[in-house]
């Protein structure tokens, strides 16, 4: 499919910093399946996938899933929770599976599973977003 990079602009310096680089494998009907390879810039001081980066992946990929529900709007985060089960190392390919559990008039509820290519669960996330009708 398509490779997406989410960026945050530093307005003072005019630079763009890469936050998340994922390859979207499929997206539609409230779901998004993506993959990425753990690189140096994704690591913590212990050499494994950084927890904050993992939370960012949960946020970004679940938002893509929500955007396929019809309105196309990303919404605004109300709550984000991540449970960490296993470390991922440099070079590991990880799969990110996000799905919309419910998209109501005001709130949307999403869940994300991040797994190694072998199927081992790395992290599980839940994301609640405010959506305007």
TrEMBL record:
It is found in: Cytoplasm, Cytoskeleton, Spindle; Cytoplasm, Cytosol; Mitochondrion; Nucleus. Pfam families: 4HBT. GO terms for cellular component: cytosol; mitochondrion; nucleus; spindle. GO terms for molecular function: fatty acyl-CoA hydrolase activity. InterPro entries: ACOT13, HotDog_dom_sf, PAAI_dom, Thioestr_dom. Keywords: Acetylation, Cytoplasm, Cytoskeleton, Hydrolase, Lipid metabolism, Mitochondrion, Nucleus. Residues 46-122 form the Thioesterase domain. One of its GO terms (biological process) is lipid metabolic process. It catalyses: a fatty acyl-CoA + H2O = a fatty acid + CoA + H(+); hexanoyl-CoA + H2O = hexanoate + CoA + H(+); octanoyl-CoA + H2O = octanoate + CoA + H(+); decanoyl-CoA + H2O = decanoate + CoA + H(+). SUPFAM superfamilies: Thioesterase/thiol ester dehydrase-isomerase (SSF54637). It comes from the Eukaryota. Its main location: cytoplasm. Belongs to the thioesterase PaaI family. NCBIfam families: unchar_dom_1. Catalyzes the hydrolysis of acyl-CoAs into free fatty acids and coenzyme A (CoASH), regulating their respective intracellular levels. Has acyl-CoA thioesterase activity towards medium (C12) and long-chain (C18) fatty acyl-CoA substrates. Can also hydrolyze 3-hydroxyphenylacetyl-CoA and 3,4-dihydroxyphenylacetyl-CoA (in vitro). May play a role in controlling adaptive thermogenesis. Homotetramer. Interacts with PCTP. This is Acyl-coenzyme A thioesterase 13. It comes from Timema tahoe.
